[in-house]
Amino acid sequence: MGGGGSSTRRVTFEADENENITVVKGVRLSDSVIDRMKEPSSPSTRSQHRSASGAVNDEELKKRIAEELALERARRDSEAQKRRLFGRLLERERISSNEHLTRAILRERAATEEERQKAQRFAKQLEEKDRELKKHDAYYKEQLARLEERSAQFYKVTTEQYQKAADEVSSRFK
């Protein structure tokens, strides 16, 4: 909305007993318009302006007021637009940070799940190694028992043969 555009809104005003202008319909005026309206002018000059060109001054005043109202409205619209844009920016930032946080949480969950799966694989491998070690342990114990049994049998046979040979030698040399 431009500051120099014309307004389709009608503004009514009237002069009070001191010939000060008063806005009737609750229209806000900027400080500069109010200051211009309060500018000191002698009553005789004001009367001459009114009598000579009363309609022109009223029209000029109406035009000034309309311009000031348009400027004020444009300023308010600009402020409102800035607030809306800032609000949108904040909303985008919030959404972006939420998305970033969500992605980070998902990455952490994925990493945690991957670590859990690794731990399960390692636990299975450890159990498998443990079973394999127990299997080897049982096998070697069995082999050791066989060797001990063979050794005992060999010892028994050797002892019997030794005893038999000793008895033969002793019977020959008696």
From TrEMBL:
InterPro entries: MIC19/MIC25, MICOS_subunit_Mic19
GO cellular component, one term: MICOS complex
Residue numbers spanned by region Disordered: 29-59
Membrane-topology annotation of the record: Lipid-anchor
Tree of life domain: Eukaryota
Main localisation: mitochondrion
Organism: Glareola pratincola
Pfam families associated with the record: MIC19_MIC25 (PF05300)
Keywords: Disulfide bond, Lipoprotein, Membrane, Mitochondrion, Mitochondrion inner membrane, Myristate
Cell compartments where the protein resides: Mitochondrion inner membrane
The keyword Transport belongs to this UniProt entry's keyword annotation: no
Record-level GO BP terms: inner mitochondrial membrane organization
Protein name according to UniProt: MIC19 protein
